C-alpha cells in the first residue's frame, strides 16, 4: 500500500515496499545524542502510524532516551533485515526524524493499546515493566529523511520539502 | 573508578615529596616545579665544577645526561602518582574503594625507599672498594684522570647526591612494579570472586592500564644513564640488567591488565560478541544530528573494528566529531524479553580517509591492518567471497580495495552499557 503523508504541511510519500518492510519489523534501533554529545543506541518496541508516516514508542519518564531527547530532539531509527551469508541481500531503512514527546494520557493509552495489539500483553508488560501510565511518555517520530537500501543500492526519500518528492534512485 | 578525575580522603605522598614539604621555600612549590628546580641545580652545579676543576668532559656529559634521565623519570613517576591520587574515592563503590585504598597504601608506603637504599649502599660500596685486590676503585680512577690526590669536596658532594637521587629513582621504579604486580594478583582474586567481580568495570581496568603506562615510559628515562654506565663496565652491565628486568616486569604488568580487562567483561557478553554478526554504528553529523547504520564488526579482545568506504558518512562524521557508539544485540526474534544488547561508546582511530593517509597508516600500522583483514575473513568467509565474486557489479565504494576505497575504523571503548530486553534503561557495566 503506497502511503502519502502530510507532515505538518510537508509531503512524504512512502512506496509500498517501505511500508511493508516497516510493518514486518518488530524492533527498531534508535540513536539519540546524550548530554555529553555521545551517540546512544537502543533497541525498542514500536508501533507504526501508517497514515502519518510516523513510528511511535513508549519510554519511561526517567529513561536515558528521554533525557537525551530533551537535550537534542533529533533521532535516527533503523530497521534492518540482514542476510546470513550474502551482504548483497541486506535490506534496511534509516529514518532521520525529529521527536515529538507527549505526556497526554490519551496518546499514551493509545500507543500502549497499539503495542499490546502488536506484541501481546506478556511481552509489553515484561519490557515496559510494572509502571503507571503517568510514568510513561509517548514519543512520535516525524521523519525528515528516509533512506532505504538493498545491498549496495540506496534510495533516498526527502520528507522535508513542501512540494511532493518522487523517489530518487541512486547508486552508492 | 575513573582514574584522573577524583579526590581521595587522604593525601598520599612519596617520601621525597614529604622531604620537600619540610623545606622552605620548596614546600610552597608543586612537585613538578621542584623537579625542574632540581634539574637546574644539577646543571648549574655541573657547569660550576667544570669551570673550577679539570673534570673530564666524558664525566660531565654523562652526569648531565644522568640528571636529564633523573628528570624524565621523576616526571613520569609523579604523573603516575597524580593520576592515582586524583581519584575521587568517595564517588566509587565500596569494593573499588577498598581495592584502590589498599593499592595506594602499598604504593606510598615508607618502605618504598627500601630498594633505593640497597642500590645506594651497593653503588657506594662499589665506588669505594676495589673489586679485585690491587685494582683501582672508580673514584681512584677519577682522581688519576684529574691528576689530584683527593677529590674536591664540592665534586664529592655532587657525586653522592646524584647517586642518591638516581638510586632512589631506580629503587622506586622497582618498588612500583612489585606493587603493581601485587595489585594485579589482588585484582585477579577479586575478579575470580563472583560476588565481587561485577564491581570492576573493564573500562576502569583499562584506565588503570593507561596510568601504568606512565611508569613504563618513565623507566625509559633510565636509558639516559647509559653514558654514566660507560664510565665503568660493571656499572654498565648492572644498569642494562636493571633496565631489562624493569621493562620486562612492567610489560608483564601491562599484559596482565589486558588479560584482566577481558576477564572483567561478563561471560555472556563475550559470547554475544563472538556470536553476533552485525552491529549498529551510531555517529553524529556536523549538524549535531544522530546517524545510524548496521555494519559487520570484529572484536579483538580489546577494541572493535569495522570496515567501511573511506567516503562513507561514518568517516565524514567521525572526522568532524570523534565520538561513536556500537550496539550489538542478540536479535532475539522469538522472545524479545530475552534480547540482550551491549552498547559501547568511545572514540575512534580511522586508518586513513583517503589514499595518502591510508598509505601512511599502512606504513605505521600495516601489520595490525593485515591482521584485522584476516580476522574479518575468518569471521565472515562467505561475505568476503561474495564481495570478491560480485565485485564488478558493486559500486566502487563497496569493492574490497583496502586503502584505495575501503578503510578500517578502530573503536576504542570508553564505557560499556548493558541493555536488557529492549528496555529503555541502560546499566553501566
DSSP helical segment count of chain A: 4
Structural class of chain A: alpha+beta
The overall pLDDT average of chain A reads 78
Low-confidence stretches of chain A: 164-172
Unreliable parts of chain B = 1-7
Largest interface, and how many residues on either side? Answer: A-B, 50 and 47 residues
Distance between the termini of chain B: 12 Å
Question: What oligomeric state best describes the polypeptide chains here?
Answer: heterodimer
Proportion of beta-strand residues of chain A? over 45%
Estimated structural class of chain B: alpha+beta
N to C succession of SSEs of chain B: HHHHHHHHHHHHEEEEHEEHHEE
What's the rounded overall pLDDT mean of chain B? 84
Overall description:
The complex is a heterodimer of chains A (172) and B (429). Helices cover 23% and strands 46% of the residues of chain A. Chain A is an alpha+beta fold and 172 residues long. In chain A, strands 3, 4, 5, 6, 7, 8, 9, 10 and 11 form a nine-stranded antiparallel sheet that branches. Chain A has a two-stranded antiparallel sheet with strand order 1-2. In chain A, a hairpin with a 4-residue loop joins strand 5 (47-49) and strand 6. Chain A starts with a strand and ends with a strand. The model of chain A is unreliable at 164-172 (pLDDT under 50). Chain B has two domains: 15-263, no CATH class; 267-428, Electron Transport, Fmn-binding Protein, Chain A (Pnp Oxidase, Chain A), CATH 2.30.110. Helix content of chain B is 57%, strand content 13%. Chain B is built from 15 helices and eight strands. In chain B, a hairpin with a 4-residue loop joins strand 3 and strand 4. Chain B is elongated, with a radius of gyration of 28 Å. In chain B, 34% of the residues are buried. Residues 1-7 of chain B have low confidence and may be disordered.
Structure summary:
By secondary structure, chain A is α+β, with helices and mostly antiparallel strands.
Amino acid at each position: 500500500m503506497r502511503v502519502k503523508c502530510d507532515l505538518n504541511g510537508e509531503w512524504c510519500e512512502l512506496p509500498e515496499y517501505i511500508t511493508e518492510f516497516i510493518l514486518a519489523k518488530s524492533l527498531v534501533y534508535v540513536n539519540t545524542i546524550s548530554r555529553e554529545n555521545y551517540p546512544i543506541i537502543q533497541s525498542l518496541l514500536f508501533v507504526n502510524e501508517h497514515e502519518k508516516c510516523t513510528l511511535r514508542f513508549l519510554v519511561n519518564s526517567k529513561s536515558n532516551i528521554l533525557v537525551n531527547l530533551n537535550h537534542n530532539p533529533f533521532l535516527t531509527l533503523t530497521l534492518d533485515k540482514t542476510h546470513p551469508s550474502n551482504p548483497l541481500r541486506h535490506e534496511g531503512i534509516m529514518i532521520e526524524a525529529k521527536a515529538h514527546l507527549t505526556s497526554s494520557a490519551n496518546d499514551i493509552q493509545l500507543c500502549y493499546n497499539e503495542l499490546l495489539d502488536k506484541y501481546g500483553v506478556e511481552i509489553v508488560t515484561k519490557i515496559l515493566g510494572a509502571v503507571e501510565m503517568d510514568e510513561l511518555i509517548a514519543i512520535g517520530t516525524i521523519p525528515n529523511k528516509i533512506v532505504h537500501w538493498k545491498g549496495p543500492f540506496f534510495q533516498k526519500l526527502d520528507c522535508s520539502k513542501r512540494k511532493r518528492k518522487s523517489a530518487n534512485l541512486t547508486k552508492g | 573508578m575513573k582514574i584522573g578525575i577524583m579526590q581521595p580522603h587522604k593525601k598520599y605522598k612519596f617520601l621525597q615529596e614529604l622531604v620537600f614539604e619540610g623545606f622552605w621555600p620548596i614546600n610552597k612549590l608543586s612537585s613538578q616545579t621542584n623537579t625542574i628546580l632540581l634539574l637546574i641545580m644539577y646543571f648549574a652545579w655541573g657547569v660550576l665544577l667544570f669551570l673550577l676543576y679539570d673534570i673530564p668532559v666524558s664525566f660531565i656529559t654523562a652526569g648531565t645526561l644522568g640528571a636529564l634521565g633523573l628528570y624524565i623519570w621523576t616526571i613520569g613517576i609523579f604523573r603516575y602518582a597524580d593520576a592515582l591520587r586524583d581519584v575521587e574515592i568517595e564517588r566509587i563503590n565500596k569494593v573499588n574503594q577498598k581495592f584502590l585504598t589498599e593499592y595506594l597504601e602499598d604504593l606510598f608506603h615508607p618502605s618504598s625507599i627500601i630498594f633505593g637504599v640497597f642500590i645506594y649502599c651497593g653503588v657506594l660500596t662499589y665506588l669505594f672498594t676495589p673489586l679485585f685486590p690491587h685494582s683501582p676503585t672508580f673514584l681512584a680512577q677519577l682522581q688519576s684522570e684529574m691528576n689530584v690526590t683527593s677529590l674536591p669536596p664540592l665534586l664529592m658532594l655532587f657525586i653522592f647526591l646524584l647517586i642518591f637521587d638516581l638510586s632512589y629513582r631506580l629503587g622506586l621504579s622497582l618498588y612500583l612494579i612489585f606493587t603493581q604486580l601485587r595489585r594485579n594478583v589482588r585484582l585477579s582474586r577479586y575478579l575470580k570472586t563472583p560476588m565481587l567481580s561485577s564491581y570492576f568495570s573493564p573500562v576502569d581496568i583499562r584506565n588503570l592500564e593507561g596510568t601504568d603506562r606512565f611508569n613504563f615510559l618513565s623507566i625509559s628515562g633510565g636509558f639516559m644513564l647509559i653514558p654514566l654506565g660507560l664510565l665503568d663496565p660493571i656499572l654498565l652491565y648492572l644498569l642494562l640488567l636493571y633496565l631489562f628486568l624493569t621493562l620486562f616486569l612492567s610489560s608483564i604488568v601491562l599484559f596482565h591488565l589486558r588479560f584482566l580487562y577481558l576477564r572483567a567483561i561478563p561471560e555472556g557478553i563475550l559470547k554475544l560478541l563472538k556470536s553476533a554478526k552485525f552491529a549498529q554504528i551510531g555517529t553524529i553529523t556536523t549538524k549535531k544530528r544522530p546517524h545510524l547504520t548496521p555494519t559487520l564488526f570484529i572484536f579483538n579482545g580489546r577494541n572493535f573494528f569495522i570496515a567501511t568506504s573511506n567516503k562513507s558518512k561514518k568517516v565524514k562524521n567521525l572526522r568532524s566529531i570523534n565520538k561513536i557508539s556500537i550496539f550489538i544485540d542478540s536479535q532475539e526474534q522469538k522472545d524479545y524479553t530475552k534480547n540482550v544488547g551491549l552498547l559501547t561508546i568511545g572514540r575512534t582511530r580511522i586508518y586513513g580517509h583517503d589514499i595518502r593517509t591510508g598509505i601512511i597508516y599502512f606504513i605505521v600500522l600495516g601489520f595490525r591492518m593485515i591482521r584485522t583483514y584476516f580476522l574479518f575473513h575468518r569471521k565472515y568467509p562467505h561475505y568476503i567471497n561474495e564481495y570478491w565474486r560480485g565485485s564488478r557489479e558493486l559500486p566502487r565504494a563497496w569493492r574490497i580495495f583496502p586503502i584505495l576505497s575501503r578503510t578500517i575504523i578502530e573503536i576504542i571503548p570508553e564505557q560499556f552499557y548493558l541493555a536488557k530486553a529492549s528496555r529503555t534503561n541502560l546499566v553501566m557495566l
